[in-house]
């Protein structure tokens, strides 16, 4: 009995001990979670302290209304990319420059970081002195390199960051401006400028080189400020190290968003906080030529409805070598709503003065863009319904032209842009770009949008299942009295070929004998080249259009025509005059499925790899190992049988 009682007492003591340990563990976990939660908040919000309160622009229209009224995205952007709902003051951090204050020599002690929306101060050590900024630069580089151990620099950023790190932050580009540009005199009363640089997980060296390039080349009397807008970057070197570095740069402010905004939303946020009369939006991997800013400001000052771009030179993504773009150049897009820079150097020979004369452009890229701040706001800023990245520059271009503005490229201004090998971050939804294009088509293209949907079948099927919320954009379109898309095509971009897309004479050119489609490698661009046969994509990218001029127009721009070089079938630039040349004329015989070259009266045939030339035996060495599309004497062979396969046929407008 005594033994049983002792055992019971021991069990009770053990139970009490276990309960005590369990309670202690729960309390420890709760305190740990609270500590780490606070630590995460503070590590994410740890900028250098403001030396002066943020001043809003007096009497300036408030762009936050546009940002706040953004439509809910049609797709969820994922955990790391939560859709933006509002931009409240407590969601932003401001790190103004510490230069130019009354006490720039302060080195010791501590000061306050004011967290908007919070009723507490945080005391942190004083920032590094100016002599320690180079050390901060090295720390940022080292931290960026540590993060890139598992992934190569190219995979992480879309360019060779290791080469970029070895270069000076103050690299001076070789002079490539026309001699007539060098002697230009500009007014001292040019408007003030805010340069808005948005970034998301940008490499340390390219971001700081962009900032220093602006500071080194922009005249101080015209540069009001440089606004760095952090679009929810996750890389460690873009947090406290960047805050400390930026706090000691003259005229530079750092704004952080706790929501992933994307290109348009991020630039809208910067515009809402800008104080300059002219906004210059710049990508975070650019380098400026000396004298780049003044020509842009002069054009905007002469006409506040102008939106202007410099010549965009190219920095090679592998070597970081600078490559000057040949003038003249303008921005265009095709019927898939993809943007291109189009160069036409032959224009210089006809008019020598064109070397320094701005050229009106149907569209402008998003690399560098200068616009009057009030005009930008009045015309609707960037469409807040555009998700993350892609085609926002085309939407803005069509809207500016249609709603009373103009766009042009200014040849005496040059800015170089890093040519990415690939997008440096994954999109949360592979259909995101199509959704952006759907907004453009449904808002601005009127009945012409059916041409777009025939060349982007994925966008067509998305549109069949869901509709974009464009009510607010249509309201802006009506209130501004914007012109329709037919006016844009005839007055602004008459060079864009308007496809006829006749039934049974447009679509993918399908070959019965091989089960493949006529194809042309996209990498060859608009120069033209040999056609071949490839698996049918079903995306609309292989679209052909046999028009009433008997031309077979190829691709989303319709600027290349089916042609022949000897027996080889190639693509050549289509003529701009009428009637077309006979070498480019074809006849489709529906009964037999043959596509006959009018000039030679030979038929289009798919020749497999290793196929021999029938009509020219002596050319065996030329074609023995080359497959593709060739002209052959007409026969009933299945490889000469074709039909145009229309993937989609949108009804109505």
Q: What form results from the Cα inertia axes?
A: globular
Helical segment count = 19
> How many discrete domains?
3
* Distance, first to last CA: 96 Å
The CATH architecture category of the largest domain equals Alpha-Beta Complex
What is the β-strand count? 28
CATH topology of the largest domain: Spore Coat Polysaccharide Biosynthesis Protein SpsA, Chain A
Poorly predicted regions are 36-91, 100-135, 138-150, 610-626
The main sheet comes to: 11 strands, mixed
Structural class: alpha+beta
- The CATH superfamily of the largest domain appears as Spore Coat Polysaccharide Biosynthesis Protein SpsA, Chain A
Instruction: Report the top-level CATH class of the largest domain.
Output: Alpha Beta
Whole-angstrom Rg: 30 Å
Tell me the β content: 15-25%
Helix content: 25-40%
Top keywords for this entry?
Spore Coat Polysaccharide Biosynthesis Protein SpsA, Chain A, alpha+beta, Trefoil (Acidic Fibroblast Growth Factor, subunit A), eleven-stranded mixed beta sheet, seven-stranded antiparallel beta sheet, 3 domains, Helicase, Ruva Protein, domain 3, 653 residues
Question: What topology emerges from the helices and strands here?
Answer:
Layout: H1 2-44, H2 64-68, E1 92-95, E2 110-114, E3 121-125, H3 133-147, H4 153-157, H5 161-165, H6 179-182, E4 193-199, H7 204-217, E5 223-231, H8 240-246, E6 252-257, H9 262-273, E7 278-282, E8 286-288, H10 293-302, E9 306-315, E10 322-323, E11 329-333, E12 339-343, H11 347-350, E13 359-360, E14 368-372, H12 373-378, H13 392-402, E15 406-418, H14 432-444, H15 449-455, H16 457-465, H17 471-479, H18 485-492, E16 506-511, E17 517-519, E18 529-530, E19 532-534, E20 543-546, E21 552-554, E22 560-565, E23 568-573, E24 586-589, E25 594-597, E26 602-607, H19 620-623, E27 628-632, E28 642-645
């Amino acid at each position: 009995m005594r033994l049983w009682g002792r055992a019971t007492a021991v069990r009770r003591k053990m139970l009490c001990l276990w309960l005590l340990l369990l309670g202690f563990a729960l309390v420890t976990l709760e305190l740990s979670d609270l500590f780490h939660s606070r630590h995460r908040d503070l590590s994410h919000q740890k900028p250098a302290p403001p030396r002066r309160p943020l001043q809003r622009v007096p009497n300036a229209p408030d762009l936050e209304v546009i940002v706040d009224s953004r439509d809910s995205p049609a797709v969820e952007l994922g955990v790391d990319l939560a859709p933006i709902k509002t931009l409240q003051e407590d969601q932003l951090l401001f790190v103004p420059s510490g230069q130019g204050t009354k006490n720039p020599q302060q080195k010791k002690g501590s000061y306050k970081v004011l967290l908007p929306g919070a009723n507490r101060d945080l005391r942190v050590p004083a920032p590094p002195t100016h002599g320690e900024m180079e050390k901060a630069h090295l720390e940022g580089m080292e931290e960026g390199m540590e993060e890139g151990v598992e992934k190569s620099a190219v995979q992480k950023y879309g360019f060779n960051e290791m080469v970029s790190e070895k270069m000076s932050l103050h690299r001076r580009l070789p002079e490539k401006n026309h001699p007539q540009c060098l002697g230009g005199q500009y007014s001292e009363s040019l408007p003030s400028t805010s340069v808005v640089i948005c970034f998301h997980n940008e490499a340390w060296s390219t971001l700081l080189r962009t900032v220093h390039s602006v500071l080194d080349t922009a005249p101080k009397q015209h540069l009001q400020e440089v606004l760095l807008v952090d679009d929810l970057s996750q890389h460690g070197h873009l947090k406290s190290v960047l805050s400390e570095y930026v706090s000691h740069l003259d005229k530079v402010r750092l704004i952080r968003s706790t929501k992933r905004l994307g290109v348009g939303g991020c630039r809208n946020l910067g515009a809402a906080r800008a104080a300059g009369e002219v906004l210059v939006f710049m990508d975070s991997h650019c380098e400026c030529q000396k004298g780049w800013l003044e020509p842009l400001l002069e054009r905007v000052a002469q006409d506040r409805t102008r939106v202007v771009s410099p010549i965009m030179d190219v920095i090679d993504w592998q070597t970081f070598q600078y490559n000057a773009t040949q003038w003249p150049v303008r921005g265009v897009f095709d019927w898939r709503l993809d943007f291109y820079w189009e160069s036409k150097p032959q224009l210089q020979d006809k008019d020598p003065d064109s070397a320094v004369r701005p050229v009106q452009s149907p569209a402008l890229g998003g690399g560098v863009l200068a616009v009057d701040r009030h005009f930008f706001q009045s015309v609707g800023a960037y469409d807040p319904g555009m998700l993350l990245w892609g085609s926002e520059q085309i939407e803005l271009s069509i809207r500016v032209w249609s709603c009373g503005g103009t766009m042009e490229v200014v040849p005496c201004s040059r800015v170089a842009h890093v040519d990415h090998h690939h997008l440096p971050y994954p999109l949360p939804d592979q259909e995101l770009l199509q959704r952006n294009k759907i907004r453009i088509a449904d808002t601005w293209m009127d009945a012409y949008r059916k041409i777009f949907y025939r060349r982007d079948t994925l966008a067509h099927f998305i549109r069949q299942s869901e509709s974009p919320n464009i009510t607010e954009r249509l309201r802006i379109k009506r209130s501004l009295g914007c012109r329709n898309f037919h006016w844009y095509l005839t007055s602004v971009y008459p060079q864009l070929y308007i496809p006829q897309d006749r039934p049974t004479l447009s679509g993918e050119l399908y070959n019965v004998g091989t089960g493949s489609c006529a194809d042309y490698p996209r990498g060859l661009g608009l120069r033209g080249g040999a056609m071949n046969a490839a698996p049918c994509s079903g995306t609309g990218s292989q679209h052909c259009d046999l028009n009433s001029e008997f031309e077979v127009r190829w691709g989303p721009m319709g600027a290349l025509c089916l042609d022949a070089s000897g027996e080889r079938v190639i693509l050549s630039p289509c003529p701009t005059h009428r009637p077309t040349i006979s070498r480019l004329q074809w006849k489709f015989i529906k009964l037999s499925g043959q596509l006959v070259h009018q000039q030679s009266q030979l038929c289009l045939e798919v020749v497999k790899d290793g196929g021999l030339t029938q009509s020219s035996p002596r050319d065996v060495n030329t074609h023995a190992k080359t497959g593709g599309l060739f002209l052959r004497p007409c026969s009933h062979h299945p490889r000469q049988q074709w039909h145009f396969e229309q993937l989609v046929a949108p009804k109505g407008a």
